[in-house]
């Protein structure tokens, strides 16, 4: 058993709960055109799940699952995906014009390109905030130039 | 009427929490006070009928609170030792707020003339909605409500506005988040590495 991270209770609870939190974030984003929510809220929920895993299992153990470079790549991919959805509007005539059939109202496959945009924003915000959390959680090893000889950290 | 009273109480609580956040001696207390203000704001969002905003506010507050507490707990000089003057800060903030409100109601209360001949709506009136007087040109909010679901296929009008009618704004927002997170990466990039004790500090005083 790896000793990093928090206690066994916290780890088991996080193991149980983090999957549900992830699914809930994806649900919030994918049904953003039907119910309150959207890509941004879903992405923040995904980042919360990532923060839960990182905090409970420790940075070293969770680095197999959530790494900084992966977060950076997904962040950029989400941003580019949103721009691609916008650019694909040229298929229908102009920037940001809907190019997908509207579908039946109140169904999951409705709203044209809005679910695609929500998906891109979900990836972008989730990965971006998770990456920012990883960067900030490395903050504890920071040298402190204001205190000379502060080696206790 | 009951809801409005509740909202006023919550706003007073938010003001109190903001004052505590500014004036608390302990950084952890400040962070928790900021979180309390944010959660009160999310309750207000829920009361005025903005569930989209309430959801986003709650999850952002949770993540921000966790993140800030994580950062605060890893520093060991989090308490302020200098004397604080809560009353003076509160008086200054109250005076500034009253002054700003007076300026708003003195200048913007009658509507600001525009170049095209019309006037900007008075302060406090929603810009996009239909104005009661004919001097203000009608807004687009009623159009969104009437035809949003037909034109975009999304029954959630907020999402329809955010990602279809006003998608340019959302693209700009996404760009802002992207650039700010990029800035955070750039600032925090090297801080996590412990400086080797044997090598002397060449760049003392400059953040590396």
Kindly name the structural category of chain B: mainly alpha
Number of helices of chain A: 4
Rg of Cα set of chain B: 23 Å
Would you tell me the structural class of the helices and strands of chain A?
Answer: mainly alpha
Q: Which residues of chain B sit in consecutive blocks of at least 5 with pLDDT less than 50?
A: 200-208
Annotation, overall tally of beta strands of chain A:
0
Helix percent of chain B reads: 55-70%
Major beta sheet of chain A, specifics? Answer: none
User: Number of helical segments of chain B?
Assistant: 7
Amount of helix of chain A: 55-70%
Radius of gyration of chain A: 19 Å
What does the model show?
- The complex is a heterodimer of chains A (153) and B (208).
- Chain A is an all-alpha fold and 153 residues long.
- Chain A has four helices and no strands.
- Chain A has helices spanning 8-30, 39-62, 68-87, 114-137.
- In chain A, helix 1 (8-30) runs antiparallel to helix 2 and helix 2 runs parallel beside helix 4.
- Chain A is elongated and about 55 Å long.
- With 208 residues, chain B is an all-alpha fold.
- Chain B has seven helices and no strands.
- The termini of chain B are far apart.
- The model of chain B is unreliable at 200-208 (pLDDT under 50).
- At the A-B interface, helix 2, helix 3 and helix 4 of A face helix 3, helix 6 and helix 7 of B.
Give the topology.
The complex is a heterodimer of chains A (153) and B (208).
Chain A: H1 8-30, H2 39-62, H3 68-87, H4 114-137
Chain B: H1 2-23, H2 27-47, H3 51-73, H4 86-107, H5 141-152, H6 157-165, H7 167-188
Question: What attributes characterize this protein structure?
Answer:
heterodimer; A: about 150 residues; mainly alpha; 4 helices; elongated; B: mainly alpha; 7 helices; about 65% helix; about 0% strand; globular; disordered C terminus
